[in-house]
Design brief:
- This protein is of the alpha/beta class.
- It has a single domain, classed as Purple Acid Phosphatase, chain A, domain 2.
- Helices cover about 40% and strands about 15% of the residues.
- It has helices spanning about 25-40, 40-55, 80-100, 110, 130-140, 170-190, 205-215, 230-240, 250-260, 265-280, 285-290; strands at about 1-5, 60-65, 100-105, 145-150, 150-155, 195, 220-225, 295, 310-315, 320-325.
- The longest helix is centred in the N-terminal third of the chain and has 18 residues, at about 40-55.
- About 35% of the residues are buried.
- The mean pLDDT is about 95.
């Protein structure tokens, strides 16, 4: 039996106060910070559970599927030297604490920088420096990354496919370059594939989705993060329906009123959130179609649905996914 531990959205925060010099504390951010403080004991217990499981099962490889650490200016990603040094320390401490020989990293939005509906940093977004800094920490020379482990080819799909633009480089060109390498991997690889997608919203990219669909039989498992918990996906499905069904207009008006309150009465955010759920109308169905598996955040969403996964590969190549919460 060969084993690895699967982690996602740990959101380790060495810069708890610094990030609010660039990110405003709106109502939803206050809620997040409140629960982060309340759940500190639970989070500590989950890390102890990780350590125990790693020891008992003699796991030596860990996979972080993105959003490992929040940066100095969190919406800008790992853009500074401070971020690089802190991230190196976080990676080493995590490896040491869990007694892992190797920790493979996927790039989430907190590594690359991002623009989401509730973003408040005018200088946020994907930047070339944040991508380069991530590669320094991950000890790689390019964004496309795959590796062979116990008879399976592991491939990472970074957050970039969710975004439409980058601040200082041609994001479309970078996506095409990535997909070209991924297509070659699918075509020539003789080993079964395990795919890690940080954000399933990346599958709104038709080229990426088409490539995965065409090669689905070669892919033995697809894991995703970003959503933190099944609860997030559950409410996302509800909001997708509200913003895409004309007959749910009264509920849409109610949702907009709630968004208006939690955004600090910012109508721009209300409009962007509505568009966000309209554009993602197919994502819940795609997750189901591709039989994707969520790697939860340690404490889930406000303490619900958290934990981590262990991937067991038997000698005959059969996969077993075990959830710990």
């Amino acid at each position: 039996m060969r084993i690895s531990i699967l982690l996602s959205d740990l959101h380790i925060a060495p810069f708890k106060e610094e990030k609010f010099k660039t990110q405003q504390k709106n109502f939803i951010e206050w809620i997040i910070q409140f629960f982060a403080n309340v759940l500190q004991k639970k989070e500590k217990n989950i890390y102890e559970k990780m350590k125990k499981v790693v020891g008992e099962k003699m796991i030596n490889v860990g996979i972080s599927n993105g959003d490992l650490m929040e940066s100095v200016a969190t919406e800008r990603g790992w853009a500074t030297k401070q971020d690089v040094e802190a991230a190196k320390e976080v990676v080493q401490e995590l490896k040491n604490n869990l007694s892992l020989k190797k920790l493979e990293l996927n790039m989430g939005n907190h590594e690359s920088g991002y623009i989401l509906p509730l973003s408040t940093d005018n200088n946020g977004g994907v930047s070339l420096q944040s991508v380069r800094n991530f590669l320094v920490v991950a000890k790689r020379d390019k964004l496309y990354h795959s590796f062979l482990l116990e008879g399976f080819q592991f491939i990472f799909v970074p957050y970039l496919f969710t975004e439409q633009v980058a601040k200082d480089f041609d994001l479309s060109k970078e996506k095409k370059k990535f997909l070209t390498e991924m297509e070659k991997e699918f075509s020539f690889s003789k080993t079964p594939i395990i795919l890690f997608v940080h954000d399933p919203d990346s599958l709104m990219d038709e080229d990426l989705l088409s490539l995965i669909r065409v090669n689905r039989k070669k892919i033995k498992a697809i894991f995703y993060g970003h959503y933190h918990s099944w609860m997030n996906l559950f409410f996302s499905k509800i909001l997708v329906n509200i913003f895409n069904c004309w007959w749910l207009l009264p509920l849409r008006m109610l949702a907009n009123a709630i968004f208006w309150i939690i955004s600090g009465k910012d109508m721009r955010i209300v409009r962007v959130l509505g568009k966000y759920f309209q554009l993602r109308k197919n994502i819940p169905a795609i997750i189901k179609e591709l039989k994707m598996t969520l790697i939860p955040a340690p404490t889930g969403m406000f303490g619900i649905g958290g934990g981590f996964l262990v991937l067991e590969i038997s000698d005959n190549g059969k996969l077993e996914i075990i959830k710990y919460d």
